[in-house]
Design brief:
This protein is an alpha/beta fold. The chain has an eight-stranded mixed β-sheet with strand order 4-7-6-5-8-9-11-10, with helices on both faces. Strands 1-2-3 form a three-stranded antiparallel β-sheet, with no helix packed on it. β1 and β2 form a beta hairpin. Helices cover 30% and strands 24% of the residues.
Length: 316
């Protein structure tokens, strides 16, 4: 049997059974709790931890995941990744040395997709011990590297995305989880939670964050993805999304910095079509129709995203 990825092994002490909340221990095939609930690890390295209701939604399809990889590989959202890195580094520095802080920072990406953003964040965080050697760094893929660096935990509902997430970085553990059903994690074990265009569960985020930890949320700003959004018939985000986010997080979180990414560019027609199809709008659209709406030339595009930070209250 293939050994568990080192990052997943490191994450097990932080995990809790999604059915009874008991601690989990490693087995040869996956994990189990004292109550007899067992969860097998997939051959690709991800671990499925769904609650008693099981899988209610399939998550993104393999086609949507492939489209997202092409868009991210083209660099469309590199500016968003840079803002997330800045927010995470700031958040880790803010929690270091507080009561209960860990030797190595732990970052949770809820709804991590293929792990593109989490990979960037984990690579930017400081290494200690074995991973700080000349041969270290997340790209080396060695066991010593995974043991000495920060720990990333990515959760994702889509199995197609989780397969890619499991191999994005040796410092990242991949879990198949439904955020709406709760997070299979211990209380106060996470330094930074980041959520990028994904479902949010504020009560659970507050529970798993250490006091002083940081929640980082990326939300679309006004005009995000225009004029492509209108041309292709994509779903429009609520105009007051950022304000509603602040209201929902008023209890337990203190608002912090806001980093705004606002870039106008042009992308090839094929990337524009992938953009329209890779998210929630992709369920309602077909590629032929999108490509006809986009046209054959480069498509103008505005990337307008707010990366908002919230600090978990130090009061228990």
């Amino acid at each position: 049997m293939t050994p568990a990825p080192a990052a997943l092994t490191r994450a097990v002490p932080l995990l809790r059974c999604p059915q009874c909340r008991a601690g989990l221990e490693s087995t040869g095939a996956g994990v189990r709790c004292g109550g007899g609930h067992a969860f097998d690890r997939a051959r690709g390295g991800h671990l499925t931890l769904l609650g008693a209701r099981g899988r209610r939604f399939p998550g993104d399809s393999a086609e949507q995941v492939a489209a997202r990889e092409r868009v991210l590989g083209h660099g469309v959202f590199d500016g968003v990744a840079e803002a997330l890195v800045e927010a995470a580094v700031e958040g880790v520095a803010g929690v270091a040395g507080t009561v209960g802080s860990a030797d190595h920072p732990v970052v949770l990406d809820a709804g991590a997709g293929t792990g593109f953003y989490l990979d960037r964040v984990i690579d930017a965080l400081p290494r200690t011990g074995a991973a700080s050697s000349a041969d270290g760094g997340a790209g080396s893929g060695g066991a010593a590297d995974a043991a000495g660096g920060p720990l990333g935990i990515g959760t994702e509902l889509s199995v197609a995305a989780a397969r890619r997430l499991a191999r994005v970085n040796p410092l990242v553990a991949a879990l198949v989880v439904d955020t709406w059903d709760g997070l299979p994690l211990a209380d106060r074990c996470i330094d930074v939670v980041q959520v990028v265009f994904a479902p949010r569960n504020p009560a659970e985020f507050a529970r798993v964050l250490r006091p002083g930890g940081t929640l980082v949320v990326a939300v679309p700003g006004p005009g995000h993805l225009e004029p492509l959004r209108t041309r292709a018939g994509m779903l429009a985000p609520a105009a007051d999304k950022a304000q509603r986010l602040d209201t929902r997080l008023a209890a337990g979180f203190d608002p912090g910095s806001v980093r705004v990414v606002d870039v106008t560019t042009a992308v090839p027609a094929r990337i524009a079509a992938d953009l329209a199809l890779m998210g929630p709008s992709g369920v309602h659209l077909d590629r032929d129709g999108v490509e006809a709406a986009v046209g054959a030339g480069d498509a103008p595009l505005r990337v307008h995203v707010e990366v908002r930070s919230f600090r978990r209250s130090l009061q228990e």
